[in-house]
Amino acid sequence: MDVIKSKNISLYKSLDDISIYRFDKALNGDLRYLSKKKDVEKIIIDVDFQNVWSDLINEYSIRTKNNTTIRIYLLIGEISYLESRNNVVPSLINNIIKSKDEEITKESIDHINRWGFPINSEKSINEELKKIMIAINNSHTKIKRKTAEYKDLTKDKGSQLTLIQQKLKLDRHLGVKIDLKKDTVSYWLACWDELELLTSEKRKSLSNG
């Protein structure tokens, strides 16, 4: 299957641009939805996706001021990135070892570099590839540690409203009709701020009444 490399992909880099639907997909571990491509099935993420995700979450943290939630979202991105890297890089190494096509070898080396494994052209390619595979194998421990941290942070969160249930709640209380695939995350957060304000004003009115 042909894949689309991230250097050929434009990514959503602001909450003012990315849709609620795509952001939610990324929150659930599929960073491919950070791309502006309509069809994400053939996309292979790399470090660019991870960097953009971190920036988006930092922007999100400024607006929501919930450090625990932010850590959870960052872990989702880190785990997704590491798992994707561990699946893709060994295949790229296999391409280098087996291919006699210089262009395929060059593209594979370039893609490995973009995953954060720089290959020193002045050293033995086989030795460089061995070092990368050792790093890949060692990162399985890192994934387990981050997964354990994620489970620890989320174990007491209980049942939460689904995205659709949240949308219906906002639609009902604010008299709006949110389009999850078109409206941005910035608009989504503004709606929640408005609902919180209305709820606060209602409480004050009841207490004074």
Break the fold down into its secondary structure elements and pairings.
Blueprint: H1 20-27, H2 47-64, H3 67-98, H4 102-114, H5 125-154, H6 163-174, H7 185-208
Helix pairs in contact: 2-3, 3-4, 3-5
Comma- or semicolon-separated keywords:
209 residues, mainly alpha, 7 helices, 0% strand
Write structural notes for this entry:
With 209 residues, this protein is mainly α. It folds into two domains: 6-158; 159-209, no CATH class. 66% of the residues lie in helices and 0% in strands. It contains seven helices and no strands. It has helices spanning 20-27, 47-64, 67-98, 102-114, 125-154, 163-174, 185-208. α2 runs antiparallel to α3 and α3 runs antiparallel to α4. The longest helix is centred in the middle third of the chain and has 32 residues, at 67-98. It starts with 19 loop residues before the first helix and ends with a helix. The mean pLDDT is 88.
- Mean pLDDT score: 88
Strand content: under 5%
Number of strands: 0
The percent of residues in helical segments reads 55-70%
Radius of gyration: 21 Å
**H and E order:** HHHHHHH
Structural class: mainly alpha
What is the overall shape? elongated
By DSSP (H or I, 4+ residues per run), the number of helices equals 7
| Model regions low in confidence, pLDDT < 50 over at least 5 residues | none
Counting structural domains, the number is 2
Quick overview of this protein structure:
This protein has seven helices and no strands. With 209 residues, it is mainly α.
